[in-house]
Amino acid sequence: MTNALLTVVGSVNEDVTMFSTALPAPGGTVLATSVRRSAGGKGANQAAAAAALVGRSRLIGAVGRDAFGDRMLDALRSAHVDVSLVRRVSIDTGRAYISVDPSGENSIVVAPGANASVVVPPTLRGPVLCQLEVPVRAAIEAARATDGFFALNAAPATTLPRELIDDCDLVVVNEAEYAAMPELRDARLVVVTLGADGAAAFERGVEIARASGRPAEVVSSVGAGDAFCAAVVLAIASGSSVSSALAVACAVACAVGAAAVASLDARPALGTLTSYFALSDASTPRPT
């Protein structure tokens, strides 16, 4: 199995995570039982997860010329992420304010800051993964620039232009995002995460593969989706796109997601991608 170098075009944030006995209702206030600050951002989390899974990755993004930006870049370097294409700009580094309840459920508000200033190079070698904590304009540019496999984690949910959907080899969303973006029924390939029920793959709106969820003790779901995205892209990129291989890729990503929810960290400690292939259904053919 080939370990592809994944390039992520995406956000870099400082996460401020507040743990409480319940998520606040509209107009309500709850008291936090604890607060943690950590390195985050969907793009940075996905790049860190990819580096953990296969040993290396590359991130294209932007941070401010502030102490937060320094800390975020140091954390990425420590995670073996190439940050040579992360810009320093005169805008504050992005922030995410996260609330987590005892079941691990979360709600997130993101202040994009420097993430709005991402510049995409004219040519990118695939596989490439992007998400929507950077401007849609950057996602369109990344899709056009990619020479190879391009994946979009369409989160946060928004209306996607037809040209972007057509340029995606893969779109990854959760159930709520899939329901909120009916235009994805026409996408070439969509993987929908189903929480504890696993994941399913759809081709032009028709289900073609499915994987069951893996048992997990849920501590926090904050970084699970990002780890899943990195894993499913790397697993698909390492094999063919037939439905049997898609089922394996979804199973591998579900195993990675289960490991992620057992950690408080948005960038949980992960094993190698190969180790998660070993946890997938042995009766299903592996990509070679």
- Report, as a whole number of angstroms, the end-to-end distance: 5 Å
CATH fold-level name: UDP-N-acetylmuramoyl-L-alanine:D-glutamate ligase
- CATH uppermost class: Alpha Beta
Structural class of the helices, strands and pairings? alpha/beta
Pathway: Carbohydrate metabolism; D-ribose degradation; D-ribose 5-phosphate from beta-D-ribopyranose: step 2/2
InterPro entries: Carboh/pur_kinase_PfkB_CS, PfkB_dom, Ribo/fructo_kinase, Ribokinase, Ribokinase-like
Main location: cytoplasm
Binding site for ATP: 174, 193-198, 225-226
Task: Name the descriptors.
288 residues; UDP-N-acetylmuramoyl-L-alanine:D-glutamate ligase; 29% strand; alpha/beta; 4-stranded mixed sheet; 9-stranded mixed sheet; 15 strands; 8 helices; disordered C terminus
Walk me through what this model shows.
The chain has 288 residues and is α/β, with parallel strands linked by helices. It contains 8 helices and 15 strands. Strands 5-4-1-9-11-12-13-14-15 form a 9-stranded mixed beta sheet, with helices on both faces. Strands 3-2-6-7 form a 4-stranded mixed beta sheet. The radius of gyration is 18 Å and the shape is globular. It holds the Pfam family PfkB. Catalyzes the phosphorylation of ribose at O-5 in a reaction requiring ATP and magnesium. The resulting D-ribose-5-phosphate can then be used either for sythesis of nucleotides, histidine, and tryptophan, or as a component of the pentose phosphate pathway. It is found in: Cytoplasm.
